Amino acid sequence: MGNLFHPSTIAGSYFHDDPRAPVPGIKTDDNRWETLPHKHRLVRITEAELGVFSQLFEVPGTSPRESRLPQLHSREVVDVMGKTIGGRKRLTDLRGRFFATQIFNEVLSQRDGSITRQDSPSYQPSVPGDWVLSGPHLFVGTPLNKTPRTSCSNNNAYDDVDLTTIEKDYLPRAVYRPGNPRGDLSQFTRSIPTWRDDGEPVTRFFRYEQRDDQRLNRADANLSDFPPRRNPDTHAVLDRLSGPSRTYAVLRRVSLYMRGLHHPIGR
Q1: Which of 40, 163, 171, 240 could form a disulfide with 208 if both were Cys (CB 3.0 to 4.6 A apart)?
Q2: Could you tell me if 77 and 182 lie in one domain?
Q3: Domain extent for 72
Q4: Are residues 140 and 248 in the same domain?
Q5: Number of domains in the chain
Q6: Last residue of a domain, one of 91, 116, 140
Q7: Same domain for 74 and 187?
């Protein structure tokens, strides 16, 4: 049992008798640690489960009994992992049909005039092409997670975005704006990578993006989504550019898998 916050959860899970009830998450709605028991919080590990872990986390040929044991919140997580190893295609099968880019480095791109930090007040883009996306904007499956406050001088000065109330053309604020301090956009435009040999900026394509600071001990370890076309991002976000539609479909399955994995973990 992973994510254990009180011993009573263990005993209670043995006596829980409603397996169809939703599995409790990591925190309650009022932001307290969740201690409710559930039958599916008890995860039985046999050699079959170890074989799944070995195929996901170890180098090919590793014995299941030598596999590392991941932190598991519920049985549903193991089910999702089992589905994953049955995938017919992986990104390694698509070499040459996608590439990764950070687009803008938050430090170096300020030096060369590609972007300018603007946090007091934070920058309000008017079109997606002016929205420089950075790490706090992302969560699992959405690039509209948080928006900087008008004065955003530290990493806590962000507000959650309520996806149920925003307008269809809503854009969060940002702490970077395109161009140098004088507003010259020439270096900004030149710095956006192009897709392969056709010269099209990568921001004109759909992309799969992922936070750079992956922490595997967290439920939200893989923060990834599909951003709007035309918006650039900083080095805290890695883009996997999808060219052909089949490649995009594979990347979409990657995102759906991660969403399916994280929700049972408790988010």
Answers
A1: 240
A2: no
A3: 8-91
A4: yes
A5: 2
A6: 91
A7: no
Per-residue exposure over 3-34, b if at least 16 CB sit within 10 Å of its own CB, e if not: beeeeebeebbeebeeeeeebbbbeeeeeeeb
- The DSSP H or E segment spanning 99 is strand 98-101
**What is the 3-class SS of 223-243, one letter each residue?**
CEECCCCCCCEECCEEEEEEC
Contact at 8 Å (CB) between 128 and 228?
yes
Q: How far is CA 82 from the centre of its chain?
A: 21
Amino acid of residue 249: A
The tokens for 52 are 């799944």
pLDDT, tens digit (0-9, with 9 covering 90-100), for 171-220: 999 999 999 999 999 999 999 888 766 778 888 877 777 766 554 444 44
15 and 71 inside one domain: yes
Its pTM stands at 0.61
Question: What pLDDT was estimated at residue 257?
Answer: 42
Instruction: Please state, in angstroms and as integers, the Cα–Cα distance from residue 118 to each residue in 121, 122, 180, following that order.
Output: 7, 5, 11
| b/e sequence 245-265, b meaning 16+ C-beta within 10 Å | eebbebbeebbebbbbbbbbb
Mutual angle of helices 75-84 and 47-57, in 10-degree steps? 60
Residue type, 110: Q
| Domain-terminating residue out of 69, 91, 113 | 91
Q: How far is CA 177 from the centre of its chain?
A: 23
* Claim to verify: residue 216 and residue 121 sit in the same structural domain: yes
Highest-confidence segment of 77-86, 106-115, 237-246: 106-115
Q: How does DSSP classify residue 72?
A: -
Give, as one character, the DSSP assignment of residue 157: -
